[in-house]
Design goal:
Layout lengths: L18 H13 L1 H12 L5 H7 L5 H6 L14 H6 L12 H4 L10 E6 L5 E4 H4 L6 E8 L4 E11 H7 L8 E6 L19 E5 H4 L5 E6 L2 E2 L9 E3 L12 E7 L6 H5 L23 E4 L6 E2 L7 H4 L13
Parallel strand pairs: 1-10, 4-11
Antiparallel strand pairs: 1-2, 3-4, 4-7, 5-6, 5-10, 7-8, 7-9, 11-12
């Protein structure tokens, strides 16, 4: 019998079509007959495109998401267009291309969903999606998102502080770190049918980072439930860290004693550290982090220390050598 062995591949986070080229190509496609015909044909066949299907699914929080009050630090920069934020991104469970998450996530049906909180806690919990969100805690917060590949966006998330969830499980004093895992559903996630990464996608934070009020569990963006490609139905957003720390479609949160293994660090430890705080002074081994391209802008701008959240979070790292703990 022949056993097909996958060639091990070490993906790089910067395997990327230059984004402006890519986005203009997509805009061209969207305006052309090709896509319009596709939609009509799909509708005639009774097929619903992924995005429309996700929106059509009864998300029990849709109303609460639409009505969430504004919160979080003020930001004067303009919000990235919803079209860009939902069509140009990374979600390797659907493939490594920047358009794959939108184009290949139509078979993903996030709901019903359960999330488990376990490990060093007094009260392990498994909660259904409707029970995850503290009723009074949902708010809209506009955060900068800085990808390690030197592009950035400004996104209005709807969510609540992760601390609210962790507190419900009553953490023990032995809990020093928090480990997160994405769902594994190869039937619905074509990227998981490949060896692109070692599934499940894993991330981690130190306990004080996880309990920081800026650390958000998001269930919506732009006033709507999260689309599949942005991490439906619930994902982490840590605005002062590079984007890959903000793990999508989370099913498990484990409080642990030791620094947990994390996907990009496991893939390439020299290039992706555990902390991965946005830092214009610490370059990636293959490119500078001093500047970034805000999606939609022509000129690059300076990257800000801790992505502009220095005042809020610098205290977490007092006395740490940020070159060593990159
Ligand atoms: N499960 C999972 N989460 C993930 C990723 C991924 O491939 N799988 N990509 C990360 C990367 S590299 C970035 S930049 C952000 C992008 O989030 P966005 O699509 O909402 O902009 O998601 C992060 N979360
Ligand atoms: Mo990223």
């Amino acid at each position: 019998m022949l056993i097909k062995i996958r060639t091990p591949r070490h993906p790089r986070e910067n395997e990327v079509t230059p984004k402006e080229l890519y986005l203009s190509r997509r805009r061209f496609l969207a305006g052309s007959a090709g896509l319009a015909l596709g939609t009509t044909l799909g509708a005639r066949l009774g097929l619903t495109p992924g995005v429309a299907r996700a929106a059509a699914m009864a998300n029990p929080l849709a109303g609460a998401i639409a009505q969430a009050p504004k919160g979080g630090p003020a930001i004067s920069e303009p919000v990235t267009s919803k079209g860009d934020a939902t069509s140009y991104n990374n979600f390797y469970e659907f493939g490594s291309g920047k358009g794959d998450p939108e184009e290949r996530s139509g078979d993903f049906h996030p709901l019903p969903w359960t999330l488990t909180i376990d490990g060093e806690v007094e009260k392990p919990l498994t909660l259904g999606f409707e029970d995850l969100v503290p009723a009074d805690a949902l708010e809209e917060r506009i955060y900068r998102l800085r990808c390690v590949e030197a592009w950035s966006m400004v996104i209005p998330w709807t969510g609540f502080s992760l601390s609210r969830l962790i507190e419900r499980a009553k953490p023990l004093s032995s809990a020093k770190y928090v480990a997160f895992e994405t769902v594994v559903r190869p039937e619905e996630m074509p990227g998981q049918r490949t060896g692109l990464l070692d599934w499940p996608y894993r991330e981690g934070l130190r306990m004080d980072e996880a309990m920081h009020p800026l650390t958000l569990m998001a269930v919506g963006m732009y006033g709507d439930p999260l689309p599949n490609q942005n991490g439906a139905p619930i994902r982490l957003v840590v605005p002062w860290k590079y984007g890959f720390k903000s793990i999508k479609s989370v099913v498990r949160i484990s409080l642990v004693k030791e620094e947990p293994p994390t996907t990009w660090n496991m893939t390439n430890a020299r290039e992706y550290g555990f902390y991965s705080n946005v830092n214009p002074q610490v370059d990636h081994p293959r490119w500078s982090q001093a500047k970034e391209r805000r999606i939609g802008d022509f000129l690059r701008r300076d990257t800000l220390m801790f992505n502009g959240y220095e005042e809020e979070v610098a205290g977490l790292y007092t006395g740490m050598d940020l070159r060593k703990f990159y």
